[in-house]
Design goal:
Elements lengths: L1 H39 L4 H13 L18 E6 L9 H10 L7 E5 L1 H10 L3 E4 L7 H19 L4 E11 L2 E10 L15 H7 L6 H80 L1
Parallel strand pairs: 1-2, 1-4, 2-3
Antiparallel strand pairs: 4-5
Helix pairs in contact: 1-7, 3-4, 5-7
């Protein structure tokens, strides 16, 4: 019975060591993926400066457009950025729970990532699914698709309130859930004075040939698409960082279990050896007694 117990313990110890090694490798991969993605981030510094200058040229706050003012009967669209894969220590659940806090009757969800879709099925809420963010160039295509769907629902289906809930990578060891208002578009209110000039007063300073509504939608489209790219890249960094931290916790736990199993194995092994020596010594004494 003792031999069987010892063999079983050795088998479990070997399995735990292999699992510990595997988790350590996965942790290293997640850390490497984080640093690779960090180097691949799109530099939007010049674009942001140009866009800020463009939005500062004319004050659209008096234009009666849903991208600037929310109608009383406007519905809410909640966008959630989650992932396709797990081992994140509950990061996806935190994103979903943060989004549901903003739920109102009639709200609809745009859910990016299979993990978020799974949670939404459990909650039984209306949603439109999108694939998760990938580190390759498909993230730009995904940003364009999500932006078009937001525009379609905002313009045609009267979703005048649009928010985005996503994990922001403050660092490789820190991920924070953030909520961003997309519509009404905040860029139209950035660095604006309290007093709004009338259209007649602004026309004296600037000639506007296009319709104000067309300009608002075109400028919002540019801002939103590039903002989504920026957010998707930060969310991907959060995924890698959260996975590395979660695997590090698992590695530490498995390492403690490994030490415990090692002590238990050698303790049991010594007991088995001692028992065998005692049995051998007893047998020899009995033989000697019989000879005498």
């Amino acid at each position: 019975m003792a031999t069987k117990t010892l063999a079983k313990l050795k088998s479990e110890w070997t399995f735990n060591k292999d699992l510990t090694y595997l988790v350590d490798v996965m942790k290293s991969i997640a850390g490497t993926q984080y640093h690779i993605m960090e180097r691949k981030r799109t530099d939007l510094t010049h674009y942001k400066k140009s866009l800020d200058e463009l939005f500062s040229v004319y004050d659209f706050r008096l234009v009666p457009h849903s991208f600037i003012r929310t109608a009383k009967d406007a519905k809410k669209l909640i966008c959630l950025v989650t992932t396709d894969f797990g081992f994140l220590g509950g990061l996806n659940m935190k994103v979903v729970q943060a989004g549901i806090k903003h739920h109102v009757p009639g709200a609809h969800y745009l859910v990016i990532g299979e993990r978020g879709v799974t949670y939404m099925r459990e909650y039984g809420l209306a949603y439109t699914p999108f694939p998760g963010v990938n580190p390759d160039d498909t993230r730009f295509e995904l940003a364009a698709k999500v932006q078009k769907e937001i525009f379609r629902m905002a313009v045609k289906n009267n979703y005048g309130q649009v928010i985005l809930v996503f994990p922001h990578a403050a660092s490789i060891s820190s991920q924070k859930i953030q909520v961003l208002n997309l519509i009404p578009c905040p860029i139209f209110f950035k660095n604006k004075p309290d007093q709004v000039l009338t259209e007649a007063e602004q026309e004296k300073l600037l000639i506007v040939e296009s319709m104000a509504e067309e300009l608002i939608e075109s400028m919002t489209e540019c801002w939103l698409r590039h903002r989504l790219v920026e957010i998707f890249e930060s969310a991907k960094l959060s995924e890698y960082g959260a996975r590395m931290l979660h695997l590090e916790d698992s590695f530490q736990t498995l390492s403690k279990i490994d030490k415990q199993m090692k002590l238990e194995f050698f303790k049991l092994r010594r007991e088995k050896i001692d028992q065998s020596l005692r049995e051998t010594a007893t047998a020899q004494l009995m033989l000697q007694g019989n000879h005498e």
